[in-house]
Structure formats: structure tokens, C-alpha cells
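Predict structure. Input: Exocyst complex component, 782 residues.
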Amino acid sequence: MAENETLECITEHERILQEIESTDTACVGPTLRSVYDDQPNAHKRFMEKLDARIRNHDREIEKMCNFHHQGFVDAITELLKVRADAEKLMGQVTDTNRRLQDAGREVTAQTEEVIRCRVQQRNMATTVEKLHLCIPVLEMYSKLKEQLESKRYYAALKTMEQLENIYIPRVSQYRFCQIMAETLPKLREEIKEVSMSDLKDFLESIRKHSDKIGETAMRQVRVRGEGSSQHKSCWLCLSQASGSFTAPDEAVLTAHDLVDFSPVYRCLHIYTVLGDRETFENYYRKQRKKQARLVLQPQSNMHETVEGYRKYFNQIVGFFVVEDHILHATQGLVTRVFTEELWNMALSKIIAVLRTHSSYCNDPDLVLELKNLIVIFADTLQGYGFQVNRLFDLLFEIRDQYNETLLKKWAVVFREIFELDNYSPIPVENEDEYKSVVGRFPFHDAEIEKQPFPKKLPMSQSVPQIYIQVKEFIYASLKFSESLHRSSTEVDDMLRKSTNLLLTRTLSGCLHNLIRKPHIGLTELVQIIINTTHLEQACKYLEEFITNITNVSPETVHTTRLYGLSTFKDARHAAEGEIYTKLNQKIDEFIQLADYEWGMAESDGRASGYLMDLINFLRSTFQVFTHLPGKVAQTACMSACKHLATSLMQMLLDTELKQISMGAIQQFNLDVIQCELFASSEPVPGFQGDTLQLAFIDLRQLLDLFMVWDWSTYLADYGQPTCKYLRVNPSTALALLEKMKDTSKKNNLFSQFRKNDRDKQKLIETVVKQLRSLVNGMSQHS
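Output follows.
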């Protein structure tokens, strides 16, 4: 085992020695270290091995030196022999070199000069070559600067593109080109900023001058509507002049005189070239939306004058005319969808604004001017392809408001006519005056035409004036229907409906207010009834008037009829009712003058003065009623008689009246007789028999019962159809009899001592008991 280890160690030491002999001395360290990493005491054995190897090499060296020593000695001997020759040759070479150096120094100097010139020549050629490459770059950059100074930004961008793509790459190794290349992006940003600034100036200028643009467009549409055939493009075209707006002669005003769109085109081209078109489009649309909102915001007092509306419309038209031009002059800066969305938004706002502001307007002339402006406004924008149907729908709403303002205006006119009327028949002195009246109002009466002059027409002066004003209203209403692009049938229907409103609401209201006024007396009421009768008859002529205007036959299925007949009939009925009321009020005034001495012993033998005055008043009043329709006069007369009879009955039965004598009954009877005589005198013709006298039948039977003292008959026949005192109610008779009983007790304090008076008193008490029995029986039966 030990022998094997020793053999391995010897083999390893041999390998290490061979490696040391064959390896560079700088790399011996790792090899020597392996000696110490081996078995213990291995380095000693290695040293022994190394010493043996050294001794072996020494012996080999010694053998080699012994072998070559004689040859070395011979070489040294030969070398010493040629030493002198070498020194001689060295001297000759040195001399020759000196002479050669002296001879070639001038050639060397000339050669160096030639070399320097050739180097300069080569450098100059190189410089020229490089300059040929650089000069176009510098020229293009100079051109770029000139273009920027002259604000030719689109051309400048093209020049930049050529510099970047063609010229700068050829000389990119030079510092100035690198600086130039670094400058170009900044110049592009400057161009974007400058062009955007120009665009902002353009937008601001457009905003300020939109009303001028719109005014021109609307004026030309109005002129075209009057016969001109100019097309919208004749006035809105691309301007090539510098500056945004000028003010040339109005007669030849066109777009290039008003608008310079070059900032928009310039900016669009610039952003397109820079690859940032979308940013520009978004900015432009956003700014125009903001401007649209500003344009659509009206002045708070816009509704006060037509100029306020006109300026509002001009600004809107100007805005959308510009947008329409941009739409057609550029590709995609704005789209049809964008303009339509913008218009729909604007249209909703416009309608809301017009609804609000027009509602404040009470002047029909201003509303009419507003309507004309809306029509021109709508026609103008419709010519540019915008939908305006909603504007014409709005006009129908404004038409209703226009009619309302007309109705208010004509209400004032009607009131003034009624206030100035004297409510007397129109006097005509001659043929000319007669023709003047019938020329204003369709009046035809054969009987009156036969009468000689001077004569009177039955109606008062207000009738022809009302008729004329109704026609004026129709004309005024017709004005609003013009230019609305409606058929004759629709115009006819609108005219008739508005006229119906005038008749049924305005004129009817004025008539009813007039009738109820306190200062309108019976004479005036009679004249009003006559007037309404003639106005009612004139309605058919108003129908013909409207038909002549619209050329729509009244037989058309959907033609609206005028409601004047019912209007004037209602007014007439109201006047009739007022006549009845005022008659009754007048009767009450006379009744209040009654001053009966209810305890008088005997009557005066004649009717009371207040009653005779009342009857005279009624006679004179009913004479005025001769011009009224017979039924009206008869109804008024019957109503007056019934009210008089009722008032007299209430006077007798007044609870405040506690006592009444037979003398007062007799005096009261005289007054009733006068009433009966008035009724029988036929104050108003047309009553049959004693119809009017029946108004006093209740009083007559009651008074007869007390005057005759026919209680036995009354009590015996009560409830029979043929009863003589059929109209006398037991409760009425009881109330009056008790008043007389109390009077008998007071005035006949000692009458109990006279037999006749005692018998009469007993009879009254007996009758009172029986009447109370009848009254109780009636209450139980009921």
C-alpha cells in the first residue's frame, strides 16, 4: 500500500516539474501551491526531486558548453579581424550620408511645400464639396425664415418638411444642422400657436359681426321674396382680401366684402400638415358651440322693440350662414350631422326664447312685425338647408297671442265707441248723409227709404262704427296669415275663428258690461236692443266679406260659421233682462215714496200721488218701447205690472205694519183701481183681453173681500174651483184681518158698549178662528 502511494507521489512530482519547465514563470504559483496541498512531507520529497532535476540540467548545460566552446573562440577571432574594415566602412557611410543629407535638404523642403499645397488643395476641394451640400440647406432655412416673417405658414411647413426629409440628412454631421433640426419642432409649435391666434381673432370677429352677416342674408331673402332671384352663394363666398370685415356700399354688399375665411383655411391646412387635424376640428367645434350659446342668449328687454328681435335674428342667421359656408368650403371641419345638431339645439332655445318674450308683448303691431321677422328668418335658414317646420308651428302659437292682443285692442275701441254713442237714432238730413251711413253699414229698409228727408235711421251711431271695426279686425287678423304658406281654406278658417272670438268674447263682453253700467237707462237699453238687432242682421254681410277675401265658398264642408247671431241675441236678452230689472227698480223707487196713513178713518177719494206719478212714468216708458220687438215690450209691461202688484201686496202684508183701518183699505183700493185702469188701457199693444189686468187679480179679490166684508161667501166657497175669491190665500186674509182687528180694539175702546160694534168684533174674531183653522188645515195637508 505504502509502495503504491510513494509511486503516485513520484509520478505527481514529475508532472509538476514538467509543468514548471514548460509554463511561463508568472503562472508557476498555482502549480507550486499544489505541492503543499498534497500529502504531508510531500514538499520535502518534491524539493529533493527538484534538486535532482537541477543537477541533471546543470550537467547537460556543461556538456553543451564543452561541445561548442571551440566554435565560439573561432568566431571571436574572425570578428576581430573585420573590425578595422567595419570602422572604415562606417566612416565612408557617414560621409556619404552627410553629403546626401546636404544634397536632399532642398529637395525635402520643396517636397514638404508640395505636400502642404496638395493637402490645402485637398482640403479646399473637400470644403467646396461640403459647401455645395450645405448651401441649399442654408438657402432653404433662409427661405423658411422669410416665409415665417411674411406669415406664409403653410409654405413654411412645406419648407420644413423638405429640410427634414431631404436637405438636413445630407449634412447631418455638422453642428449647425443639428441645431437647425432641433429648432424646426419649435417653429412648428410657433406656427400652430400663431395660426390658432389668428383663428381666435377670426372667431371673435365673426361673433361681433354675425348680426351684419345675418342682416345682409335676411335682407336679400326679403328682396328675393319681392322679386329678386339672387342665390345665397352670390353673397357668401371665399374672400381673398386681407382683414376680416369691410364696409363697402350696401347696394353691392357681398361675402368677400364682409368675411375673410382665410384664417380658418390656413389653420386647417396647418394642423392637417402637422398631423393634428382632429385637435383643430375639436377646438373649432367647441368654440362655435360656445359662441352659439352666446348668440342664442337674448337681451332681457328684447320684447320691447322690434329692433331687439331683429338683432337677435340677425346674429343667429349670421352664425349659421358662416357654419353653412364652412361646411361646404372645407372637407370635414364641420359635418352635416354637427350643424344639424347645433341647429336643433339652437332651434329649441330660439322657440323657448320667443315663447317667453312674445308673451310679454301687448302691442299687436309689434307682434305682427315679429311674425314677419320670424317668416324671413325661417325662409333664410330654410334656404341653407335647415329644418324650420317648428318655427312655423310656433307662428301658430304666436298667431293666437296676436289675436289676443288684437282682441284687447279692439275691446278698447269698442268701449270708446259705446262711451261716445248718444244712443239715439241716427239723423240724416239729406241723400248724401244717408248714402254715407249705408255705405258704411249694410242697412236696407223700404219704409224708411220712402220717408222724406230729414229722417232718422233706427240704429244709433255706434252700429256702423262697430261694423267697420269688425271689418278692420278681420283685415288685421288677415295680415298675420300672410306669408305663412297656408291654403286659402286654412286662412279662411283662421279668419272666421278669430272673428268669432271677437264677436263672442270681446264685443259680447263689452256689450254686457255696457248693459250693466249704472248710467245706462231704459232709453239707452231700448236703443241697445235695436242696435243688436241690426248688428245681428249684418252678420251675413260679414260672412260675405270674409268669403270675398279668401275666395272660399261658405258652402265648403269645413267652413266655420260666424257666431254673431248668438252673440247679439245673448246681448239682446241681457239688455231685455236689464230693462225688466231697471223697470222694477224704478217701480221700487216710486213705491218707497208711498206715505199711507194706515189708521185713517176714510179715504181721500182720489188715488195717491206717488202712484199716479208711477203710472205716468210707465206710460211714457212704454211709448219708447214702440221700436222694440212686440214680445219684448209685452214682457216688460207684464213684468212691471206683476212687480207693482207684488210690491203693493207686500206693502199690505208688511210685518212692520201692525194696524190698518178700513179707511186705509179704501184708499189702497183707489190706487189698485188706477193700476187696473192702466192695465186695461193697453199701454203696449198685443195683449189679448184682460191678460194684463190679471197681474192685479190677487189684490183685487183680496180688497173686494174686505170692502164687501163677504166672509160668509169666502168661507163657504173656499176650495171650490168656482170660488169668487179663489186667488185669496187664507193666510193672507188672516194676516190682514188681524191688522184690522187690532185697529178696531184701539180705536173703539168703548165700542163694547155699542151693540153693532160688539157684533162686528165678534164676527172678526169668529172669522179669524175659521181662517186659522183653514191655515192649519193647509199646513197639515202640505
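Residues 83-149 form the longest helix (67 residues).
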